[in-house]
Amino acid sequence: MRSVAASLMLLAAVAAPAVAQHPATRIIPKVERVTPRDDAWRVADTLVIVATDSVTRVEAQRFAATLRREGRRAVRVASSSAAPALRLAMQGGTATDESYTLLVGGDGALIAAPTISGVRHGLQSLRQILPAEGGSLAGVEVHDAPRYPWRGAMLDVGRHTFPVADILRWIDLLERYKMNVFHWHLTEDQGWRIAIDKYPKLTSIGGFRVEADGSRYGGFFTKAEIRQVVAYATARGITVVPEIEMPGHARAAIAAYPELSCTGAPLPVPATWGVFSDVLCPTVTTFRFLEDVLTEVLELFPSRYIHIGGDEVPKERWRECTECQAIMRREKLKDEHELQRWFIALIGQWLAERGRSLIGWDEILDGGRPAGATVQAWQGTSRVTDALAAGADVIASPSEWVYLNRSAGELPLARVLQFDPSIAAAGNTGLGRLLGGEAPLWTEHVTSPANAELMLLPRLVGFAETVWRGPVAAADFAARFEGGERARLARAGYAIGPDDRDLMGVAFRYDSLAKGLRISTVAVEGVTLSLRAADAATGVPVTESTLLRGDGKWYLEGRYRGQLMRESRILTLASHRAVGKPVRIATPPDAKYPGTGQFTLTDGVHGTAFADGFWNGWLGVDVDATIDLGTATPVDSVVVSLLEEVRSWILLPREVRLSVSADGVRWEDGGVRPVQRDIDPDGRTRPRVTLTLPAGTKARYVRVVAINGGRLPRWHPGAGEASWVFLDEIEVH
Questions:
Q1: Is residue 113 located within the same domain as residue 206?
Q2: Which of 82, 85, 95, 705 could serve as 48's disulfide partner, Cβ 3.0–4.6 Å?
Q3: Is the per-residue pLDDT at 1 higher than 60?
Q4: Which helix (H) or strand (E) holds 65?
Q5: Nearest to 662 by CA among 709, 701, 715, 618
Q6: Burial code of 445-479, b = ≥16 C-beta within 10 A, e = fewer?
Q7: What is the pLDDT of residue 505?
Q8: Is residue 151 part of a domain?
């Protein structure tokens, strides 16, 4: 049997030729150094993989199985081979060294690395350049190592959940592109997804919610399924980091056990998205619950790191809670932010006593960083800098660069490819360390496995490139991805989304000639759009000639391979005298919320959520809109449709004023309706405000003024900032 050293010497003995476009230069992520050589490996029809120890033998067997699934007819694992073969070898090095060397020459191929992680990475590189059957692979010497030790992806299963088989498929993607952390976001306001034996109602109640249409949605992962995922990932060198959200984003837990909240009031599992006021109360009861839950979590997950969330925690309930205020006095905490730090510090201490380390989102910095906590910075690149300055180990996940739940139209691949957390670390003189980066996929609007893949790919591949090698030009990446990797992913059955546009580019326009709503689409190949009436089981395809008019409710659905893309978009049509009439608006709406165009306020369509394409939004100003009915018309009443989403900076207007005119010169006061009341932190309404006119009123012009709700209150995360006012329809009856 030839020694590793002898194999290295033989494979490296041939002089390097002039620079050439060796297939290794097209590997994703890009490798550190490629040196082409003059000889070649004549790969036999039967590929022999030589592994001389039990550790590399396991990897050899797994790699052989992967190649067989991908179509290679014959692969054999052996302890020796006289013929050219693929040899795997581990050499001395530190336990954290993920580097590897790949040598290809006349004697076959050798992957040598200090650790089994390096061997795995070398196999993934070879996988991309190995001929599918017997053939020739030009000689090469590759030296490679990652830029960062933390290269992760996060999947939220709280909002929408997915089958275990698809979780495993996505872990395959992480291994393929040399990522090493799967961050599993297991609990949320909208669903608790991990079985806890001591608290069965967490899944029987907290694991399910009632949707707006009355259907029941939910599910959870059994302990056997979780062990399956952890074992599968571990075999591929990937650490599974569980996230159990606390003290916020815990409404599902509170629905199951109301005593965990500060009020004890029974609450349902929410079926809407956003941030909710009811959070875990920092009492003895809550800490006992969390210790019990985490004890079972630690039994399932061997990861050193346990993520506890800590983000988006409203403090209203704590301010109103006598027990919370007593704790603050006892612990000499000056405000509720320090109370949160105290809460998280206790959990961190409990974990540390059991040999684990706490990770929290960057809000854990707000009351002072708990000792020993690792910070996952998401609110912007500046938060990476803040966390490093606070002395924390940091995982960079700035939403503007790597949040893959953002559409590719908003966060294109070219931008992801420029992600560089080292910029935020430059000049850091504190003790904080930049561990690397992580790309989250939040699933509020990701409804199926196919939907998830279309969001992840190809941008997750681009992200993997940046944390392995660093930022890269889009053209460079495209040459390698389009040069073969896209086709390989497609053959493996993965759904690949667009680089720089939405999955469903849907636009709505009121057609004043046809007197109806036109729907135009720019859908991704394979995505089909259909309209389904509220009382119908199936829909009809949407075409460029689709026209909707009259009254009724419709559901606009997109599907890929039969799987739903995003939630159904609800179109509620209502007839009234102003439909299709021109509107003059004193201050145009913000460009972010163009609605359906110039007829948004008179298109006869009601919106459901502020981002559904049917609303106009104005930031910090009043709305002043005048409708021209064309001729003096009897008018009994005017109905104004408004939106309140307090957590999204959208307040109801203070009041709505109406005036009418038959000629545009003389105006009659149509009344004033106060709208805004005490602002509920969880306010989420769609009121329709009616102003009634005296009998016999005729008007050609109808003017509506909605007075902006003012600056956000002091308890709001955006305290003091301007608020939005949203309208989607002004009905004239």
A1: no
A2: 85
A3: no
A4: helix 54-69
A5: 701
A6: bbbbbbbbbbbbbbbbbbbbbbbbbbebebeebbe
A7: 80
A8: no
